[in-house]
């Protein structure tokens, strides 16, 4: 995330900060991905106690202890995930207790529940190793885990608030939803200020260019608004965030910044819930009772796949052709063989003929066509890898553009499909401007 021109950064004036430490050799070895950390990051941000420190350590007591201390220096609430199981390599409980100087005692209720559980699974006695799972911190809390044997534990003292959660994701999530969220609300209450976000989606402009242009239009005083630029292959989202104030005041601040950057973003903006331009495009096509078809070469059906991603696509999408060879462009789309010989398959006349051919063959009101050099081979001096011609046709008018997209084969294909969809979107909503020359 590039925080760009923001003066009030996303994490400024946060009252409560959290840390997440994931424990497990398998995480360090790359055998398991730390999805718990990502999940907790999203949930804690929503709750208003964002994660500002996160780390992964192995099943080593000293490492866990060191990490707990580091996390506590920076944050108010520390989460430690994993390593609560019954085997000797599960060290989290003991490590945290030792580091905080808080004792562990057997909780009779936990012991009883554990024994019952083992009996119901056909064991006479609790294996000795499992008894460690009945330990809880002195003065702390047990967070029951209905989905597994290791409960969550809370170490509480005047200066410590450390929450241990089981490693298996479905157990961790269950314990968090059921017990941790209410606990945080109860203990931190009004100090938790959930952020309000507003997302402005753009496509067709590079992050650096967007950030630079926006910098010039921003008011000197952004108030409590933080700005983040979130780049993807298909575009850049601008996220505005405010963490304090009444609903009215928050909306006022957001409106003010959005209005200030409107002149920069209006040519590139689209609105969609999932961040997919196709949602906006399909909405506009449906509103205009327009149908669309596709003629694709280097994108191999990607544009058609994207147009059919959401339910209701059949209202607007009639069909598409993947015409990879020259002959198929002639046979399936009616492209004139002379054009292919004279200009080559990757050329403006050919892409325009493909767009026209799609409209004619499918009887659609609109069409999208793409032909290019996705690479890694096949580039020439005049048409290097990444050169892509794309066209959109709408109510008898065809617009065509050429771009040289950066990236590997898959990136070139993704970017081509997005640019072609964006071109049709521009035509349909009557937005002018030329996207062809800037990267
Ligand atoms: P158990 O009682 O099942 O042993 P535990 O608290 O000791 O629970 P671990 O043994 O550390 O948890 O991990 C159990 C499983 O959960 C691992 O096999 C791993 O696949 C998964 N897991 C652990 N930590 C994470 C994490 N941070 N993200 C995703 N999965 C994880």
Structure report:
This protein has 439 residues and is of the alpha/beta class. The chain has helices spanning 25-28, 35-47, 61-74, 92-100, 108-120, 169-188, 207-217, 247-265, 277-287, 302-307, 326-333, 337-343, 348-362, 409-429, and strands at 18-23, 51-57, 77-81, 104-106, 135-137, 141-143, 152-156, 161-165, 196-202, 226-232, 235-242, 269-270, 292-296, 317-322, 366-372, 387-394, 397-404. The strands form 4 sheets. Strands 2-1-3-8-7-6 form a 6-stranded mixed sheet, sandwiched between helices. Helix 2 (35-47) runs parallel beside helix 6. Bound molecules: adenosine-5'-triphosphate. The site of adenosine-5'-triphosphate has 22 residues, from helix 1 and helix 2.
Rounded average pLDDT: 92
Please give the share of residues in helix.
25-40%
User: What is the rounded distance between the termini?
Assistant: 20 Å
The largest beta-sheet arranges its strands as: 2-1-3-8-7-6
Shape: elongated
Secondary-structure-based class equals: alpha/beta
- Distinct small-molecule ligands in the complex: adenosine-5'-triphosphate
**Strand count:** 17
> What's the tally of helices?
14
Radius of gyration: 28 Å
Biggest sheet architecture = 6 strands, mixed
Uncertain regions spanning at least 5 consecutive residues = 1-9, 433-439
β-sheet strand percentage: 15-25%
